[in-house]
Amino acid sequence: MEYNPFDHQTQANPYPVYQWMRDEAPVYHNPEIGFWALSRFDDVLQAHLDAATYLSGYGPMIERMDVADVLVATDDPAHAWHRKLISRLFTPRAIAQLEPKVRAIASDVLDAARERGELDVVLEYGGYLPMMVIAEMLGIPMEAREPLRRLSDRSLDRSNVDDPLADAQAASIESHEILAQIVEEKRRHPGDDIATLLLTASVTDLDGVERRFTPEQVVPHLMELMAAGHETTAKLIANGVVALTWYRDQRRELIADRSLVPAAVEEMLRWDPPSQYQGRWVERDVTLHDVTIPADSRVILVTGAANHDDRVFEEPELFDIHRRFDRHVGFGFGIHLCVGAALARLETRVAFEELLARFPDYELGGPIRRAYSSNVRGLSNLPLILNPGE
Ligand code: HEM
Questions:
Q1: Between 20 and 30 A from 364 (CA), which of 28, 42, 252, 317?
Q2: What is the C-alpha to C-alpha distance for residues 217 and 98, in angstroms, rounded to an integer?
Q3: Which residue's CA lies nearest to atom 30 of ligand 1?
Q4: How far is the CA of 366 from the centre of ligand 1 (A)?
Q5: What residue owns the CA closest to ligand 1's atom 12?
Q6: Are 141 and 359 spatial neighbours (Cβ–Cβ below 8 Å)?
Q7: What is the pLDDT, as a whole number, of residue 160?
Q8: Where do the domains of the chain lie?
Q9: Quick one: how many helices (H) and strands (E) in the chain?
Q10: Which residues of the chain have pLDDT under 50?
Q11: Atom 18 in ligand 1: residue holding the nearest Cα
């Protein structure tokens, strides 16, 4: 058997090959593409916790693109103060205050769709809501939001099998140019937003030195927050809508008891995580399960496989909002644990509360297309009929 994360059939359903890897090849090697993969929950967790061995500095994907100055591709010591600067803007307390705004955006979209009786969850709801929220937080002007959203979709797109990176680099460069102009504008006219804070705020590093970003560093960090802030949440919401189409009894339970929605969101993150693997790099030999990964190798931590490990999760292929578990790796773990986890949880919870309150009987309304991307798993469209009985 072979694990090729770019293969369209594998992307349609990677879970059987994940099971094979966990059971038969827990230290999997794909010499053609050039990577190693860890798939068991405990191995993935340990690798997340050992950031000195499993380095992030070569980027989060298998492909070696030019790595920008972003949190997810920075190792310590720089990561520690970069993270300190950024994470304090996304604390659960700060995020909780956004709830009325998130709810208002979700309500507006759904109320507008009521007349039409249909909604594309990816294009109009799951993709739109997180993008509007993060763009507002960052201080991205309205007219730049849609172009940046399309560019970030393009930079993740790998549907061209012959030359998967053909368009990705160009799209990243274009995003960079738009954001550089926005940062320049914020330097001249500071706003009440994260872009301005990243230009002005400082933190005390572990060595006691006061540090701050240069304007050139602010640009890629904004780009990361903008892309990470909407791509994955958009996919999670749509993957969750699919789950509740298959598991209707659980949909009915959520409608009857809203207090179950947070647990359902956690199960969505475990069951079909939008971020399927995290790229790492080892600079020294690492031996695990009697196999040695040689120094200077790409290693991926397969989140989707770890979250389905039956050594940890009973009947992992089943979606079950009553499942009890105290951790999963859907947001990663350790020093690179998702900065936006509280925001993503809030957005997804509110998205489902509002959708289910208005349209409890939604049905799929047409063919679904998968987005073929690097490490983000999800759909590129998901049409729903909102009130099928009417
Ligand atoms: C359902 C939605 C989301 C999922 C599934 C997700 C998943 C992840 C994962 C797996 C990582 C770890 C990467 C690694 O270990 O290499 C991560 C890191 C990160 N996420 Fe998220 N994320 C989501 C939403 C967000 C949001 C809303 C933001 C916006 C603020 C965000 C910003 C980031 C950043 C900046 C990092 C890098 C953190 C670091 O390296 O220290 N994410 N995310």
A1: 317
A2: 27
A3: 340
A4: 31
A5: 332
A6: no
A7: 64
A8: 8-121+233-385
A9: 15, 13
A10: none
A11: 338
Residues 183 and 215 sit within 8 Å (Cβ to Cβ): yes
> Which CATH number applies to 8-121+233-385: 3.40.50.150, 3.90.226.10, 1.10.260.40, 1.10.630.10?
1.10.630.10
Q: How far apart are CA 49 and CA 56, in angstroms?
A: 12
Gap from CA of 341 to ligand 1 centroid (Å): 7
Q: Is 315 left (phi over 0), alpha (psi -120 to 50) or beta?
A: left
Considering only CA atoms, which of 98, 88, 97, 184 is closest in space to residue 135?
98
Closest ligand 1 atom number to CA of residue 86 = 35
Q: How far is Cα 40 from Cα 18, in angstroms, rounded to an integer?
A: 9
Question: Which residue do the tokens 């007349």 mark?
Answer: 115
Residue type, 6: F
Q: Which amino acid is at 206?
A: L
CA of 112 to the centre of ligand 1 (A): 30
Q: What is the pLDDT of residue 277?
A: 96
For residue 158, report the distance from its CA to the centre of ligand 1, in Å.
Answer: 20
Q: How far is the CA of 277 from the centre of ligand 1 (A)?
A: 12
Alpha-carbon gap, residue 89 to 97, rounded angstroms: 12
Could you read off the pLDDT of 251-293 as tens digits, one per residue? 999 999 999 999 999 999 999 999 999 999 999 999 999 999 9
CA distance 105 to 102: 5
- For residue 302 the two structure tokens come to 């397969």
- Which pair of structure tokens corresponds to residue 377? 């798993």
8 Å CB contact between 354 and 114: no
| Nearest residue (CA) to ligand 1, atom 3 | 232
272 ligand 1 Cβ < 6 A: no
Our mutation pick for probing the ligand 1 site, out of 230, 338, 346, counting the most ligand atoms within 8 A of Cβ, is 338
Residue type at 216 in one-letter notation: E
Q: Are 374 and 16 in contact (CB under 8 A)?
A: no
Alpha helices by DSSP H, 117-214: 128-138, 142-156, 168-188, 194-200
- In terms of phi and psi (left: phi > 0; alpha: psi -120 to 50; beta: otherwise), the region of 290 is left
CA of 337 to the centre of ligand 1 (A): 7
Compute the distance from residue 78 Cα to the ligand 1 centre, in Å: 18
